[in-house]
Amino acid sequence: MPQIAQIAETYSSQIFWLLLTFGFVFFVIGLGMVPKVQGTADARDAKISGDLDAAKAAFARADEVEADYRAREAESRAAAQAVLAKAKADAAKDSERKLAAADAEVASLISAAESRIQAASNAAMAQIETVAVDAARDMVARISGVEATEAAARNAVKAALAHG
Amino acid sequence: MAESGKIDPMHQFAIEPLFGTDHLSIGGFNIAFTNSALYMVAAAVVLWIFVVGGMKRELVPGRWQMAVEYMTGFIKSLLVANVGEGGKKYIPYVFSLFMFILLANLLGLLPLGLLGLHPFTFTSHFTATGVLAILSFSIVLIVGFWKHGLHFFSLFVPHGTPLPMIPVIFPIELVSFLVRPFSLGLRLFVAMTAGHVLLKVLAGFVINSSNAGLGYGLTVGSASFLLMIGISALEVLVAVIQAYVFALLTSVYINDAENLH
């Protein structure tokens, strides 16, 4: 077994080279490079968990904003409905008042027109009477040659007009 | 040594100085650059290339960076599971240990013999595994006494031990604690040695049975060859598992030093 047979002449060389090479591995690679590699991995892990936390926080904030938005929407909807109802009531009241005013105006116009018509028809009747009296006196004078008094003619006309 | 024909299954563990450095020495100690040292350097260089590929530090990693970060993340979760949050400061050490042993095991399994090279697994030498085990054990001792002082000895008295039992329990726990570096180093050495010996013995069967005749070659040889394919797959698994066991036990021992049970 060379491990035992050669130990006397090779142990110092093996120990020397092992310490040299393992020293290089430990000090240059282990202490010099591995922490940087591990640091990169740790930084990546930290970044991933940080990003996840940020995403979670953003989600929570979005929910909050949405709830806030919903509350404000409901609020403004209620406000709009109140404004609408008030406007409806105002408009109804307003049109009622206008209607009443218009009614009154129309009624006064109608009564004025009616009185005007009444006056006009009275005037027309009076005129017709005068014309009829003249015509009656004329007819009496032509037919009988008697001059009828104006009062008699008027009475006769009145009676005829009253009978229609 | 067990010889099967001309094929020596133990020859693969022989250490040979390379590039004429046989007599290189420091303070009287030989430090020849051997095939073992070559594979240590190869493991370190391959690991360096692997980790450099993961240094792009992009937020969205590519495949290579993902692979490197997977390995460091694996060691991190191993330490956090066994030691807790305080285990993170041992990531550089346990990562170096795990990857160095893993690459040593895997590089030693490469079929470089086909190219005329001589593959070598330095984790099959207890000199090498012993050094790594003593390193891990020293860290446990240093951290333990640094953090807890003499209170570290309470590690050897489990919670709820009745007072009369302490004189018995204490030596038992102490011995089991002191055996740790040996079990740590020997486990890796034995697992790697056994697997490689088994592969070479079976390969020897294939060659010797074929040389003995066509009938032997077709029966014994092909059966051994099929077995070798399966065992080679198993050896890749063992290479990974032994590296993992070394890292896992190191982190369990570090937990004792950090948290005292």
Unreliable spans of chain B are: none
Number of strands of chain A: 0
The string of secondary-structure elements of chain B, in order, is EEHHHHHHH
Radius of gyration of chain B: 22 Å
The residue-averaged pLDDT of chain A reads: 89
| Helix content range of chain A | over 70%
Name the shape of chain B in a single word.
globular
> Biggest chain pair contact, residues each?
A-B, 37 and 54 residues
Number of domains of chain A: 1
Describe the biggest sheet of chain A?
Answer: none
Gyration radius of chain A, rounded: 63 Å
Largest sheet data of chain B: 2 strands, antiparallel
Sheet/helix structural class of chain B = mainly alpha
Fraction in beta strands of chain B: under 5%
Amino- and carboxy-terminal Cα gap of chain B: 45 Å
What proportion strand of chain A?
under 5%
Distance between the termini of chain A: 167 Å
Write a structural description.
Chain B: The chain crosses the membrane at residues 37-55, 67-84, 90-114, 126-146, 152-172, 184-207, 236-254. The complex is a heterodimer of chains A (164) and B (261). Chain A is built from three helices and no strands. With 164 residues, chain A is mainly α. The longest helix of chain A has 138 residues, at 7-144. In chain B, strands 1-2 form a two-stranded antiparallel ribbon. Chain B is globular, with a radius of gyration of 22 Å. In chain B, helix 6 packs antiparallel against helix 7. Chain B has helices at 35-52, 63-82, 91-109, 126-148, 166-178, 180-212, 214-259, and strands at residues 25-26, 29-30. Chains A and B meet through helix 2 of A and strand 2, helix 1, helix 2, helix 3 and helix 4 of B.
